[in-house]
Amino acid sequence: MRGWRYALEHTEEMVELIYSHYSDRQSREHLRYEAAEMRKLILPDVVELGYLNPGRWRHIADMFTRLGMLRESLPVDDLIYAPDREVDMSRLYLALAVALGVIGVLVAVIWRFAQLHRRLKDQTASLEVALSEIKELRGIIPICAGCKKIRSDDGYWDQVEISIERHTRAEFTHGICEDCMPRY
Predict the structure, then answer these.
(1) N or C: which end of the chain has fewer CB within 10 A?
(2) Cα-flanking dihedrals φ and ψ of residue 36, to 5°?
C-alpha cells in the first residue's frame, strides 16, 4: 500500500520513472492522463487505500455477469482477507505427520547402521587380536631323516619341540603314546 500511496502523491516522478526506465511507447502527457484517470477510479481521498468492501466486489461481479463477461456470479468472500476465518490445518498436520514419519524411519536406519558398524568394529578388533596370536611356520623346514631334529637358521640342529617353540607360541608337554609304551 505504501507504494500506491507514494505513486499517487508523486505523479510527476512516477511519469518520469515509467517513461525513462520502462516504456517510452506512451508520451509523458499520456502517462499523466492515465495517472489522473486512475486517481479518479481509486478515489484515495474518499476510500482508504487497501480497503475492500464486500458489497462493492459483489456489485462488480454481478455487473460482469450481466455484461456477459462472466458465466455466473462468483463468490467474493474468498477475495477478502478475514482474520477470524477458520483455517483448515488438516493438510499441514498430514504433511507434518509424513515428515515426522520419514524422520523416524531415517533415525531408525541410522541407528541400525551405527549398531552394525559397532558390531563390525568389535569383530574386526577380535579378529586382529586372534591374528596377532597366530604365528605361522612357512617355507621348507630342514629336518633330519634319522633323529628328526630341525636345523636352525644358525646351522645348529635342535629338537623338534625347541624349534617349534622358538618360531611359534605353541608349548609342548611330554607323554608316551601307546605304540612307544612297550619300548620304554
Answers:
(1) C
(2) -65, -45
> What is the 3-state secondary structure of 114-128?
HHHHHHHHHHHHHHH
CA distances from 50 to 42, 60, 78, 85 (A): 10, 17, 16, 19
Q: Which residues of the chain have pLDDT under 50?
A: none
pLDDT of res. 165: 83
Kindly report the backbone phi and psi dihedral angles of residue 150, in degrees, each rounded to the nearest multiple of 5, phi listed first.
Answer: -110, 135
Give the integer Cα–Cα distance in Å for 68 and 98: 46
Grid cell at residue 61:
461481479
| pLDDT tens-digit map of 27-71 | 999 999 999 999 998 888 888 887 778 888 888 888 888 898 888
- 157: phi then psi, degrees, rounded to nearest 5: -100, 120
Q: Which residues lie closer than 8 Å to 43 by C-beta, 6 or more apart?
A: none
Residue 76: name the closest of 99, 97, 95, 52 by CA. Answer: 52
Residue found by looking up cell 489522473 in the block: 36
User: Whats the size of the chain, residue-wise?
Assistant: 184
Neighbours of 56 (CB within 10 A): 12
Q: What is the pLDDT of residue 131?
A: 81
